[in-house]
Specification:
By secondary structure, this protein is an alpha/beta fold. It folds into two domains: 1-82 and 160-222, 3-Layer(aba) Sandwich (Rossmann fold); 92-158, no CATH class. It has helices at residues 43-50, 76-81, 98-108, 114-127, 143-154, 173-190, 201-206, and strands at residues 3-14, 17-28, 32-37, 58-63, 66-67, 83-86, 161-165, 193-197, 210-215, 218-221. The strands form two sheets. The protein has a six-stranded mixed beta sheet, sandwiched between helices. A four-stranded antiparallel beta sheet has the order 2-1-4-5, covered by helices on one side. Helix 4 crosses helix 5 and helix 5 (143-154) packs parallel to helix 6. The chain is globular. The protein starts with a strand and ends with a strand.
Length: 222
């Protein structure tokens, strides 16, 4: 199994400050990895480093074959095409339909063929059980439905890894279970690695995976 994410002795920054020292983390194809820890201990800074929002200034880091220390600005979009990202607050474009949200992502990542775009949108909507919602506006959907659309958006380009930052944080328990079933099903059936930030230890009991904990300016596997 090859690594899709690799850090060695990496210092993770949040703004100008180092928030995690000496991170050693390997995520392989098909892994389900959790990052847990209290608020403010660097979980989201690690995610931001993985998706190249925060620069890596010390140590080694590689994501989907891209060396984060040598990453050029123009290479960031192609790195992000190999990642799927799911946020707590969905981050859908509220001024356009579900279909237009997904089309926007495909066009911005180089898709041009109209038939191929339509086909791919239908495929991902079917994968998340939302094929009847293509023409809805985000505000017409429940929180759980919006998160399903966010997951559909994340898998559009068949990413090697999905990064999920508190994906159930704004959802009730029943809806959250459906989202977690969906994400772990993608992990199991497609072999897509998932890195999930969560503060809910109950999730880990129900959907076992490898667990890293941020505390005292470190992040170690437990």
């Amino acid at each position: 199994m090859k690594n899709v994410i690799f850090f060695k002795d990496a210092d993770i920054t949040g703004g100008e400050n180092t928030v995690v020292y000496g991170l050693n983390l390997e995520v392989r194809e098909g892994d389900l990895v959790y990052i847990v820890g209290k608020v403010g201990t660097g979980k989201t800074s690690i995610i931001r480093t993985i998706i190249a929002e925060n620069p890596l200034r010390k140590g080694e880091g590689e994501v989907c074959g891209y060396d984060l220390r040598k990453l050029r600005q123009r290479d960031i979009p192609s790195l992000r095409r190999r990642l799927g990202v799911v946020f707590q607050d969905f981050q859908l474009l509220m001024d356009r339909s579900v279909e237009a949200n997904l089309e926007f992502v495909l066009k911005s990542t180089g898709w041009k063929d109209r038939n191929a775009i339509d086909k791919r949108i239908l495929e991902v909507l079917e994968a998340v059980g939302m094929q009847t919602k293509a023409h809805k506006m985000p505000h017409q959907l429940s929180g759980g439905e919006q998160q399903r659309i966010a997951i559909a958006r994340a898998i559009l380009n068949e990413p090697e890894v999905i990064i999920a930052d508190e994906p159930t944080g704004n959802l009730d328990a029943e809806t959250a279970t459906g989202i977690l079933d969906l994400l772990t099903g993608i992990n199991r059936e497609r072999g897509t690695a998932i890195v999930m930030v969560t503060h809910n230890r109950g999730i880990i009991d129900r959907y076992p995976g490898r667990v890293f904990e941020t505390r005292n300016e470190t992040c170690t596997e437990i």
